[in-house]
Write a structure and sequence with these properties.
512 residues, TIM Barrel, UDP-N-acetylmuramoyl-L-alanine:D-glutamate ligase, 2 domains, 41% helix, binds adenosine-5'-triphosphate, binds 2-(4-methyl-thiazol-5-yl)-ethanol, binds magnesium ion, nucleotide-binding, transferase
C-alpha cells in the first residue's frame, strides 16, 4: 500500500443516510470522486453487523487503493485486516493498541490539547501515525460532546507544539464542524507559528454521508482543497494600483455597516461621512444579507457594548459568504471573562480583513496577556513587545493587524493569501513585515471617547476600496490619514471638546 494521503478523510455514519442510499453506496461515490482515506465509525452497531460492513468497505477501499481505518474496535480492525485503527482519548491506551496491531498498521489518535502532543512526542515514532485535531467547530455528529470548539487558532496551537517537539512523523487532519463554507478558511488559518506546518487534510462526515449526491459533494470538496490561495474578499479596486485607494474611497463611497457600541454610534457615523463613506448602524440580523449585497459594503464589527453574540456570528458568516470584508475591533478584549469568551467566539467565526485594537486588546488577542482597565489599555509594554503581539495576531488570524497607541503598528499576516496543505506558508510569525506610524505625542486622542473605534470606521472605508491583495496598503493609508488628522487637530484645538470637532474637520480635509 502507498503512503496514506490524508487530504480528504471521510468518517462514516450510517445514521444520517438519505433515503435510498446505503453506507456502502455513499462510500463508493466518495471513493470514486476523491476521498483519500476512510474511517468506519459505527457507534451503535453490533459486532456482527460491523464486521460485515467492514468487509464490504474494505473491498471497496482496496479497489481504490485507499486505506480503511476502523474506529475503536481493534478486534475488528485485526479480523478484517484493515489498514489501521483510530482511537480517542477515552479508548484503549495507545501503547496497548500498537502492541495489539503490530508495527505496520496505521494508528490514529484524537487530539485536542497541547499536552496530548507532549505525550505522543514522548512515545516517539512508531506509536502514532496521525492525529485527528479537533473539535474545530460545533458539530451535529457528536451531539453530547462537552468539548469546547478550538477554532483554527486551536488547531494552530497543536501544529505549533508538533513543530516544537519535532514530531515530523505525525500527520494531521482537522475534524469537527467542517463544511464547504469553512474548509478553505480553516486550511488558510491553521499554521504552526514557524510557518512550516499546515494540516495534512480535513476530515468530515455529513457533507458526504448525508448528501443526496455524494459524488458531486466529494468533487466540490476536492476542488476547494485543491485551491492554492484563500480569496475571501472581492474588492472594489478595479486595478491593483494601490496608490489609488484614497481616490477609490471617494469614488466608491463604501457603505460602512457598523455593528458597534452605543458610545461610538454617532461619532462613527460622522467620521464615515467626513471621509466620503455612508454609514449604517444595524444589529438587525434579518437585513445583514441585503446589506452585504449592496455594492461596496463593508462590516465594522466592534464588540464594545454588544450583548448578543449570535447576531455577531451571523454577521460574520453572512459577510464572509458574500466575500465582503470585515474589520474587527475586539473592544475590551479581556476586560472581563464574559468579554473574553464573547470576543474569542467572534474571532473563531470567520476571516477578517483587519483586526484592530489598542495595545491592551492586541496583547490580549495575541496570547501574551494584555492589561486593560475597562476598555482602555493600561499596560506599559515596550514597542518590541507590542510589535511581537501584533505579529502574533496577524499570523494567528491570517489578517492585517493594527495595534494603536502613540506609535501605531500595522502587520501584514496575509502571507500572499497562500493556503497550502501539507507544508506551511514558509513565513514565521516573527518574519511578518510591518509598518510603524508615528507622530508627535497627542495625548488628547486618549481624552475623547471612541477615537480608536472611529479609526476602525476609517480603516473599514479604506479596506472596502481595496481588494484582498492590497488590504495591508489600505490599512496603512487609513491609519496614517487618521494620525495626520489628529496631529493637525491637536495644533488648532482649545481642549478635548474642540479636538473632537477639529479631528472630524481634518479627516474631511485630508480625505479629499
Ligand atoms: N499619545 C498618542 N499620540 C498620538 N496618537 C495617539 C496617542 N494615543 C493614541 N493615539 C491615536 O489615537 C487613536 C486611538 O488609539 P487608542 O489606543 O487610544 O485606541 P482605543 O483605546 O481603542 O480608543 P477608544 O476605545 O476610545 O476608541 C489611534 O489612531 C492612535 O494612533
Ligand atoms: C467607553 C466605552 N465603553 C464600551 S465601548 C466604549 C467606547 C470606547 O471603546
Ligand atoms: Mg478601542
Amino acid at each position: 500500500m502507498k503512503a496514506a494521503d490524508y487530504t480528504l478523510y471521510l468518517v462514516t455514519d450510517s445514521t444520517m443516510l438519505p433515503e435510498g442510499k446505503t453506507l456502502i453506496s455513499q462510500l463508493a461515490e466518495g471513493l470514486k470522486n476523491g476521498v483519500t482515506i476512510v474511517q468506519l465509525r459505527e457507534k451503535d452497531t453490533d459486532a456482527k453487523t460491523f464486521v460485515a460492513l467492514a468487509l464490504e468497505a474494505k473491498k471497496l477501499c482496496d479497489h481504490y487503493n485507499v486505506p480503511l481505518i476502523i474506529n475503536d474496535r481493534v478486534d475488528i480492525a485485526l479480523a478484517i485486516d484493515a489498514s489501521g485503527i483510530h482511537v480517542g482519548q477515552d479508548d484503549i491506551p495507545i501503547p496497548m493498541v500498537r502492541k495489539l496491531v503490530g508495527p505496520e498498521k496505521i494508528v490514529g489518535w484524537s487530539v485536542g490539547k497541547v499536552e496530548e502532543v507532549d505525550q505522543l512526542a514522548e512515545w516517539g515514532p512508531g506509536m502514532i501515525n496521525y492525529i485527528g485535531v479537533g473539535t474545530v467547530f460545533d458539530t451535529q455528529t457528536k451531539k453530547d460532546s462537552k468539548k469546547i470548539p478550538m477554532g483554527p487558532e486551536g488547531v494552530s496551537r497543536i501544529l505549533t507544539r508538533l513543530q516544537e517537539k519535532k514530531c515530523d512523523w505525525i500527520k494531521t487532519v482537522a475534524i469537527g464542524g467542517l463544511h464547504p463554507d469553512n474548509i478553505s478558511r480553516v486550511v488558510y488559518q491553521s499554521q504552526s507559528l514557524d510557518g512550516k506546518r499546515s494540516i495534512d487534510g480535513i476530515s468530515l462526515v455529513s457533507d458526504i454521508m448525508a448528501s443526496d449526491d455524494a459524488g458531486q459533494s466529494t468533487r466540490i470538496l476536492r476542488e476547494i482543497l485543491a485551491e492554492k490561495s484563500h480569496h475571501f474578499f472581492e474588492g472594489g479596486a478595479a486595478d491593483k494600483n494601490t496608490a489609488n485607494i484614497k481616490e477609490n474611497v471617494q469614488k466608491l463611497s463604501p457603505l460602512i455597516h457598523h455593528i458597534t457600541n452605543r458610545v461610538h454610534q454617532n461619532f462613527g457615523a460622522n467620521v464615515a461621512l467626513a471621509i466620503g463613506c455612508s454609514p449604517i448602524m444595524s444589529e438587525v440580523a434579518a437585513e445583514f444579507e441585503d446589506l452585504c449585497k449592496i455594492p461596496h459594503s463593508v462590516l465594522l464589527l466592534n464588540t464594545g457594548t454588544v450583548a448578543d453574540v449570535g447576531i455577531l456570528i451571523h454577521a460574520v458568516k453572512t459577510y464572509n459568504s458574500q466575500k465582503r470584508p470585515i474589520v474587527l475591533d475586539p473592544v475590551g478584549f479581556s476586560a472581563s471573562s464574559a468579554r473574553l469568551i464573547l470576543n474569542k467566539k467572534v474571532l473563531s467565526a470567520g476571516q477578517f480583513a483587519c483586526i484592530k485594537g489598542n495595545t491592551g486588546e492586541i496583547m490580549g488577542v495575541s496570547g501574551l496577556g494584555g492589561a486593560m482597565k475597562g476598555v482602555d489599555s493600561s499596560g506599559d509594554d515596550s514597542l518590541e513587545t507590542r510589535i511581537e503581539a501584533t505579529q502574533l495576531v496577524a499570523f494567528k488570524y491570517r489578517t492585517v493587524a493594527v495595534c494603536t497607541g502613540e506609535i501605531d503598528i500595522v502587520v501584514d499576516g496575509t502571507a500572499s493569501l497562500k493556503r497550502p496543505l501539507q507544508s506551511g506558508v514558509g513565513v514565521s510569525s516573527a518574519d511578518l513585515s510591518y509598518e510603524l506610524i508615528k507622530s508627535e505625542n497627542v495625548p488628547l486622542f486618549g481624552r475623547i471617547t471612541a477615537s480608536g473605534c472611529s479609526l476602525g470606521t476609517v480603516i473599514a472605508g479604506f479596506v472596502c476600496a481595496a481588494n484582498d491583495e492590497s488590504i495591508f496598503t489600505a490599512v496603512v493609508q487609513a491609519v496614517t490619514l487618521y494620525k495626520l488628522a489628529g496631529t493637525r487637530a491637536n495644533a488648532t484645538c482649545k481642549g478635548s471638546g474642540s479636538f473632537l470637532v477639529d479631528l472630524i474637520d481634518n479627516l474631511y480635509l485630508a480625505a479629499e
